[in-house]
Write a structure and sequence with these properties.
This is Aspartate aminotransferase family protein. The chain has 462 residues and is an alpha/beta fold. It is built from 17 helices and 15 strands. β1 and β2 form a beta hairpin.
Length: 462
């Protein structure tokens, strides 16, 4: 039986809900923080305590909480057409308008859109699309997907296999599709002693070429990558990485899938991270800030070459037999259209670059803190990595306990951050102001000092 909680809502949560990415037994002891409402960069629990949402929910609430324009757009669409599917030659106006808008926003080569409900479903769908096309091309052996260690591409069986985080694989029997995970492109952590950043890139490219030669380019369908890795710890790529990788892929007839589920719509200060890093992707995967997570939606934007292969094969066998009940959901698409209007009218993409410089500069002050090994990021996404030894970069043992303590102290100080092991991530709403950035980081700083005192007092060994 669950432990009795004074708040009946908390008790009912513990009794009935299984939470994602949560220690279920630990949750039985602690119960939830029940978030009741949101306004701007703040959320408030059911006891009235306010928190700066330094993670924009889950990397996603670009326009902040409580944007009435989006709620009104959803209400209007609910009243007109609350749902319809897009199977068997059916469509709806919001889905058509959003597809057109995304094609106009994205690079010129990307001309077609397929809607899903989440980034996980989108990346799962991408794999199926590529397998479908390669079968139609008479290349049924071309099925292997290249990914990277520490990558996050979702949590379904297929997208979870693409993900390169051991926790997401353990006891789920993943990976279970043909996937090869390459070295994580994080120079600070994985660069060798005396190795320059450029030499690190050379080594990663050499590894890519070696794996392609080993597996055979005729067996590899695509490489999938986040331009800047998010849930693996906010990891910008090393200098020259993406142009070099892209050249190797093109030379070997291997497609490039850019997962911009976190990066897209202004997070790093450009509309898409592909622009910043010079990536010419064959497939672009979008979600999260597409609707600011006010409604579930993801989009796959892909090249005409891929579309023609799908279309020809669907004509040959009678159908493209893939889709979801809510693909192109009219309310979600209406929400996305209004959300993109808000982002454009408030110039959130343009100002993200300016405010990102402020965030990166303020966080950089923690580089001298005794627990901090690295501060990194770009635009309005950043991470502070905690280490046991600043000189050797040695991790705490066990990994994650110090990060979890800091995460909980953040709640006490009114800021919701994310602990990825001992890497503390920041990804605030794009509407955040410079003064709010200062307050967010100040609250984090107090939590960090509490954590340093706990470590110094032997808390980790207790």
């Amino acid at each position: 039986m669950p432990i009795a909680f004074p708040n009946s809502l908390h008790a009912r949560d513990v009794e009935y809900l299984l939470h994602p990415v949560t220690n279920a037994r630990r949750h039985e002891e602690t119960g939830p923080i029940v978030i009741d409402r949101g306004e701007g960069i703040y959320v408030y629990d059911d006891e009235g305590k306010g928190y700066i949402e330094a993670m924009a929910g889950l990397w996603s609430v670009a326009v902040g909480f409580g944007e009435t324009r989006i709620a009104d757009a959803a209400r209007r669409q609910m009243a007109r057409l609350p749902y319809y599917h897009s199977f068997s030659h059916k469509s709806n106006e919001p889905a058509i308008l959003l597809a057109e808008r995304l094609v106009r926003m994205t690079p010129e080569r990307l001309t077609r859109v397929f809607f899903t409900n989440s980034g996980s479903e989108a990346n799962d769908t991408v794999v199926k699309m590529l397998w479908y096309v390669n079968n139609a091309r008479g290349k049924p052996e071309k099925k292997v997907i290249l990914s990277r260690q520490n990558a996050y591409h979702g949590i379904t069986i297929t997208s979870g296999s693409l993900t390169g985080l051991p926790t997401n694989h353990r006891d789920f029997d993943l990976p279970n599709i043909p996937v090869r995970h390459l070295t994580c492109p994080h120079f600070w952590r994985y660069g060798q002693p005396g190795e320059t950043e450029e030499a690190f890139t050379d080594r990663l490219v050499a590894e890519l070429e070696s794996v392609i030669a080993e597996v055979g380019p005729e067996n590899i369908a695509a490489l999938i990558g986040e331009p800047l890795m998010g849930a693996g710890g906010v990891l910008p790529p090393p200098a020259g990485y993406w142009p070099r990788v892209q050249e190797v892929l093109r030379r070997n007839d291997i497609l490039l899938v850019a997962d911009e589920v976190i990066n897209g719509f202004g997070r790093i200060g450009t509309t898409f991270a592909c622009e910043y890093y010079g990536i010419d992707a064959d497939v672009l995967v979008l979600s999260k800030q597409l609707t600011s997570s006010y409604a579930p939606l993801a989009a796959i934007v892909f090249s005409d070459e891929i579309y023609q292969g799908i279309a020809d094969n669907s004509a040959k066998i009678g159908t493209f037999a893939h889709g979801f009940t809510a693909s192109g959901h009219p309310v979600s698409c209406a929400v996305a259209l209004e959300n993109l209007d808000v982002i454009a009218e408030k110039r959130l993409i343009e100002t993200a670059a300016e405010k990102g410089e402020v965030l990166q500069g303020v966080l950089a002050r923690f580089r001298d803190h005794p627990l901090v090994g690295e501060v990194r990021g770009l635009g309005l996404i950043a991470a502070v990595e905690l280490v046991a030894n600043k000189e050797t970069k040695a991790k705490f043992d066990p990994v994650g306990r110090v990060g979890a303590y800091l995460f909980n102290r953040g709640h006490e100080h009114g800021v919701i951050i994310r602990a990825i092991g001992d890497q503390i991530a920041f990804c605030p709403p794009l509407i955040i102001t410079e003064n709010e950035i200062a307050e967010m980081v100040a609250r984090f700083g107090r939590a960090l000092d509490d954590t340093a005192a706990w470590v110094a007092s032997g808390g980790l060994a207790a």
